[in-house]
Amino acid sequence: MDPPKREAGGQSEKRKRMVPHAILFVIVAAATNVVYSNSLFGQLILDNARKIAKKEKIHHPTVARVASRNTGEVRANAGGERQTGNDPRTALPRENVGDYVSGEMIVALRSGGKTKTRAEVMAALDAAEQALPGQVLRRFSLRFGQRTVLVRLPDGVFVTEAVNDMLALKDPRVTYAEPNHVVWAAGVTPNDPSFNLLWGLHNTGQTGGTPDADIDAPEAWDMFIGSSDVIIAVIDSGVDYNHPDLAPNIWINPGESGTGKETNGIDDDGNGYVDDVHGFDFCRRYPLLADSDPMDAHGHGTHVAGTLGAVGNNGLGVVGINWLCKIMCLRFLDAEGVGNYYDAAEALNYAVTMGARVINSSWGGDSYNLTLLDALTVARDAGVLFVAAAGNNATNNDVLPNYPSSYDVDNVVAVAATDHNDELWWASSWGATSVDLAAPGSDIYSTHPPFTNLFLVDFQAVIPPSLGPQLTSEGTNNYWGTTDRGNGNITLRGDVQSYPYRSNSDGAVLTPAFDTIGLPGLALSFYSRREIGNDDAFVVDVWDGAAWQEIYRRCCSSGLPDFFRRTIIDLERYRNAAMQVRFRWLTDNDDNDYHGVEIDDIAIQYVGTDYAGNGYAYRSGTSMATPHVAGAAGLLLAQDPGLSLEALKLRLLLPVDHIPGLDGLVASGGRLNVAQSLLVDGEPTPVAKCRYISLVPANPGQETALRVTLTNLPAPFEGVNGTEMWSANREKSVRTPVRFRRYPTRAS
Q: What is the pTM of this model?
């Protein structure tokens, strides 16, 4: 049926129905101001609308808003209709931006009144339809006397405003009004071109692995894609916050942004940190000092960030578990990937103070540290989840703990790594009681800083013993030169005599001078092996624009290694217009029986802009498994921001995919399944709760055994052995932690 012709104001109705129609007419007329404001006809419509509103004593919010707009003004996209620049689904058709179709509204109409005949019902519905704002695109009827119509709103009228205003009218002919919400096919597949490489999110066997050995990310995205209100802190080597696949999801400190606050050198928000716009750099290893820039000079942290929060459906690279989130960038690992517990604890405290709900910690060591434990306890009390890598030592953490993942604090979730066949990754550490669950961690593809070489020399084109055209030399008794190690493998030596090296040398080789001002992630990289006697040294200096600064020194090493070790040194604090690097070889007057120092592949690099060609990489480890779990936690908080810490942890661990090969290796006996986690309702209840049981030997030195059995286990514990046994052969009683293999909170 052709749509009925619009008659302005519904003038065919009786006077008693004039007021509702007048209101609707006012909405339509006022809204058309944006479309027709440059025409005389449009101005007449608006004037007429105002007259009707005044005569009928109507005060309508849409009238007030639209009538107050300047002639010809078109309002920017705001309110409930998301900005295309901030929404991850901008690759959808323009009219499908956000959660609903932009500019469209669904209205359910009913005939109302005392109409009896079919003709009267149709006439009443036609009249109600004619009074709607905008153009009726389609209609259908679910039952007699009712009609559901799809309305295209006039330009400049926003969906949320129109719906709210329609409902506020309480027109008896309007059953309801709502946006035309967008839905996706079950198991959403984003348009990120490298999504097919992310077997951990969606495993179809594309890498030769087992189909569905994944975390069911597309099924999870059918329910939630994340929220910009959820802050996930990445405590790591920093994050490349300029990466186009991460930048829209990078956290911005509201107290240090806007009106030049980003670089004014002032602690604007009073949190003790100056210009901490995206986070902070806590890396204090000699000779570095903390600064505000958490740029990643290593790559590890950026890779982690991409797995948990790369922007989804933006047509670029990869997708994170959260299409939407805010990534807080906290650097405490240096360019070589090394850090310390103090810096880590300070970064952890910052994350808690500044509002992170989840912290990703893809690092660890074997030392128990009270400072970090204290910081973890504070985080627990604040309700912050701490997701930690189990380690890549291929060892049992129950026997050889790995920290921080082995701290027995309620907010810690320890993560092992699996491969594409759902088997424990070969180097992953495990622990039946100290590691909670597993997640994909082998050959994980993710975002990476596009490191660019400002300077590179590999010596392969050099004719020994020449230094080649890129290096110069200076000093006393300078014996630097190149040698051929065989098969054309040319390297640089502190003494070309090689073995034994000569005494009384103070020689150096220098790189050219470079303007390094403004280069992010600036670092020096070289490979070396050395055998150095007492009081002799291999030293690296950098020119900071005023003087030489020593940044590296090695001495007193015996036994020449068979392999070269890579060294990476941060140079960001030394950036200047004429920066140089100097390698020095210093020997005393004693004879020796050593080989000296050998160097290869010297590079000065920075984080460039070739993201398309060099902005992604593969990495493996429990470090890569951890952000799968941290990202899943973020998705759960997007679904239910009010989740308690205990509930959040339970919802990660209760619905894991049980993997027989992980029984006895991780406490949950399974691998993360984020889709199943989203399906768990409310706050799960623990099956049992018991932290410690004391074992008191009947006689000193006698073995004492304790058997604990859980009975009447509900799903998902059905069919799982609830019996565990501990033995003690101690002179004194021992407090034994009680943890069940399928008890997800490690009995905390």
A: 0.71
